[in-house]
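Could you join me in thinking about how sequence relates to backbone shape in a protein? To get us started, please write out a protein record for me. Would you write everything just below, so we can both look at the same thing?
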Amino acid sequence: MLMKEYLKNERGFVLPLVLLVMVVLSVLFVSMFTLTEANTNQVVVQENNLRGYYMARSGIEIAHAALMTEDSDPSYHLQIDRFIDESSDGSLTDELSLPEDDPMSDIEIEVSVVDSEVKIYATSTLRSNGAKQDLALFINTSNYNDTRWSNQ
């Protein structure tokens, strides 16, 4: 009989149940918050990598455009022809900041002749967090339209 009365006694049962539900909801909330924060951090890292990649690519395209301009010397057709003849295993290095009006990245560009290709190599360093990204463009010396990109 005593056991029957004890099982029917419902006083004090709601408080532990409410506490248990609150603990479960708290754990779920904290885990959701942690996942959201991790995703946000990952997006920032990916944005910085993309920003660095496109800044390095912009630097390479600026150097490529400069090499593909016509040379003032009539013995050379393009600037790249003069560079190939005068490089003699040397390299040309330049630094620039992009965009010019409000720089967000410093880019170091190196142009050199490697085997039968002209290599334009750029390293972009973001000013906001120092993230670095590098990229290279190889131009075939016998056919300037034959190019290939490479992540170093």
User: Anything to note?
Assistant: The first strand starts at residue 91 and ends at 98. The chain has one domain: 14-150. The two ends are 82 Å apart (CA to CA).
